[in-house]
Write a structure and sequence with these properties.
- This protein is mostly helical and 343 residues long.
- The protein is 69% helix and 0% strand.
- α2 crosses α4, α3 packs antiparallel against α4 and α8 runs antiparallel to α9.
Length: 343
């Protein structure tokens, strides 16, 4: 019995380290990614031990990635140019699926599903706790963690990236952690609070996605714990107007009922003036003109792609410049299927 417990504890440690490295593995430059190296090592290990198995449930995801990579190759043959850093993203995703899904590394750990989920939650919880600390009480922590996160901007109060190099991705991981915790048989309230707070301290998009996710859990009656369900209802009722008001204020859209209602609260009014300093304030029109400009592309390039660098911020714009609307559609299809599998 003791030997079995020791093995289970070792499995927990190994699986936690594995999750940490594949999610937060440091990037030493544009091409050397520790998480990719770890995934390759895992695949090689299972190939050498004869335990490599393709999980049929993930064949479609793998097939989509293969189609995207083949499409990139065809585009390269047609244009004569290729963005290796961009193309490498799909190779990394393909290898990651093989590593953490297709070779059954998780099932080989012989842990029950709740303990496996707990390993992932612990890693995401560490990330979320760091976000809260570095955005409130220890701002300089963002500078200290640069070697791991790769974050290269000036640290800001009330915003943190945790162990990632971007606000949006940091918030996404906190929301994923929240969803994992809510999907447990007995969600822990303190961990829910940590994930919610961390999501609010990353980006405006993460704030809105958080509101949508909580609304989904309420409407779909996914939370069986009455206390947690009540908390979500109260949180949504209190936070929905301030969150959307902050989003509108920081995008120069102040002449609307949401902002006017929020500004009646003296506390929000004073806090919003401070929060605006921590976000890039711009109007929808200026953002669209700056970040959704396709004037450098022909109609064929917009549809099929050209492997041109967009030099614009939104991922959608980058993908259209690189692999066109066709490539963007295939990429979105991959994420839609992945999200459906999680739900």
């Amino acid at each position: 019995m003791k030997l079995r417990n020791v093995r289970k504890n070792l499995d927990v440690i190994k699986l936690s380290i594995y999750f940490f490295l594949i999610i937060f593995g440091p990037k030493f430059n544009s091409y050397l990614d520790l998480s990719l190296i770890i995934n390759i090592m895992v695949i090689v290990y299972y190939l050498c031990t004869g335990k490599f198995k393709i999980n049929k449930k993930n064949l479609f995801l793998l097939l989509i990635e293969i189609c995207i990579m083949l499409y990139c190759v065809l585009l390269f043959l047609n244009t004569g140019t290729i963005d290796f850093a961009f193309f490498g993203k799909f190779i990394k995703v393909f290898i990651s699926i093989l590593s953490c899904k297709s070779i059954n590394i998780i099932s080989n750990s012989k842990l029950d599903s709740d303990k496996i989920l707990n390993c992932l939650i612990i890693i995401l919880l560490i990330h979320s706790v760091i976000i809260i600390i570095e955005s409130t009480i220890f701002i300089d922590l963002q500078d200290i963690l640069r070697s791991i996160s790769g974050f290269d901007r000036y640290p800001k109060s009330f915003r943190g990236t945790g162990l990632t190099n971007g606000y949006d991705f940091a918030g996404t991981l906190s929301i994923v952690g929240l969803m994992c915790e809510c999907n447990r048989e007995k969600p822990r309230f303190i961990q829910v609070i940590i994930f919610v707070l961390a999501s609010l301290l990353t980006s405006r998009v993460s704030m809105i996605v958080l509101e949508i996710v909580i609304l989904y859990y309420i409407l779909a009656n996914k939370i069986k714990n009455k206390f947690l369900s009540t908390f979500f209802c109260v949180f949504l009722g209190i936070s929905v107007i301030p969150v959307f008001a902050l989003f509108l204020v920081t995008t120069n859209n102040i002449d609307n009922i949401i902002v006017e209602t929020a500004m009646k609260n003296s506390y929000f009014s004073s806090m919003s003036k401070e929060f605006v300093n921590y976000y890039a304030t711009s109007s929808f029109a200026s953002v669209s003109e700056m970040h959704f400009d396709f004037s450098r592309l022909t109609t064929n390039e917009i549809i099929f792609g050209s492997f041109n660098v967009a030099n614009q911020d939104p991922g959608y714009t980058q993908y259209i410049y690189e692999i066109g609307l066709i490539g963007l559609f295939m990429t979105l299809l991959f994420y839609i299927i992945l999200i459906c599998k999680m739900c």
